[in-house]
Design brief:
Helix content is 44%, strand content 11%. It has 14 helices and six strands. The chain starts with a strand and ends with a strand.
């Protein structure tokens, strides 16, 4: 049976940095029998994972063989396999990544005998939603943090629900999980788990792919919103993305421009408690292997 590892994210957990690092070592991976795919190849020409796996045609086995290209192990890293974290509706959605398990389930329907290993990184809720907010700003939608967090699933979501839905899929054999906060320490262990063998040190790209936004950059974008309220539509947001990029470039995070952080100490404490309790529950799931620093 083909060994398939699906690294599904989650978003805002250094996924882009990991993918860039793995791309630098693609030749080594190929030589070790690993065919590696990430957004650079998966999304080329407007395609996605389902297209490459021929899911719509019900030909997953053929799609896998094409992606393997003569190698023994298929490693797919694509955070969009989980779909969107939540919908920005009028009220909070209690389910984080409501469709996060569906693509993996669809793969199982196409080839019931094929087993998958799944890998994902999880993050403290306060840091995760802060990062989602700044990414929303970079996308050209400039709400206040208060409006964003009120309409998000922050107060009601849990990582347990996401992992449990993936865990329940019969075609999922094993789930490797790590905390985003431990990424720097665990990077080489994570790579070994994804690759299925220890190839020695995988060099890391030197800089963060998405450095976030400073307090001053957020203030600049909120000022633009006040002058030009517009409306929340794709045609309105896309032209504003260069404005967000310019604000990030003008006020880069660092000693001069502190990173945007809307949380109070009490908020951070409660978030850390929720996160610790959820990680303990996830670690107790039979299929889960939690990497520890």
């Amino acid at each position: 049976m083909t060994h398939i590892m699906l690294h599904v994210g989650v978003h805002k957990t250094a996924t882009t940095h990991m993918q860039a690092s793995l791309r630098l070592s693609r030749a080594r991976l190929n030589a070790a029998g690993v065919s590696y795919w990430d957004p650079k190849t998966l999304r080329a020409g407007g395609s996605d994972v389902a297209d490459h796996l021929l899911l719509a045609e019900g030909r997953l086995a053929s799609g896998v063989q094409q992606m393997l290209d003569g190698h023994d192990r298929l490693l797919i890293s694509e955070e969009n396999m989980l779909r969107l974290p939540y919908k920005m509706g009028e009220g909070p959605n209690p389910i984080l990544y409501e469709r996060g398990h569906q693509l993996i389930a669809q793969m199982g329907q196409g080839a019931p005998e094929q087993q998958f290993d799944v890998a994902l990184s999880l993050r403290d809720y306060a840091g995760y939603f802060r990062s989602l907010y700044t990414q929303t700003l970079m996308g050209g939608y400039f709400p206040s943090f208060k409006r964003f967090i009120t309409r998000s699933s922050y107060d009601v979501c849990t990582w347990v629900h996401l992992v449990d839905r993936i865990h329940a899929l019969p075609n999922v054999r094993r789930i490797m999980v790590w905390r985003y906060e431990d990424y720097g320490v665990l990077a080489q262990a994570i790579f070994a788990g994804l690759i299925g063998q220890d190839l020695g040190t995988i060099p890391l790209v030197p800089e963060r792919s998405h450095p976030g936004l400073s307090e001053q950059a957020v203030a600049a974008l909120r000022g633009h919103q006040a002058r030009d309220p517009g409306h929340n539509s794709r045609l309105h947001k896309i032209p504003r993305r260069p404005i967000a990029q310019a604000a990030r470039d003008a006020f880069p995070t660092g000693a001069q421009y502190p990173k945007f952080d809307p949380w109070q100490a009490a908020d951070l404490k409660l978030s850390a408690q929720r996160y610790a309790a959820d990680m303990a529950e996830i670690a107790a799931m039979p299929k889960v292997h939690l990497l520890k620093a």
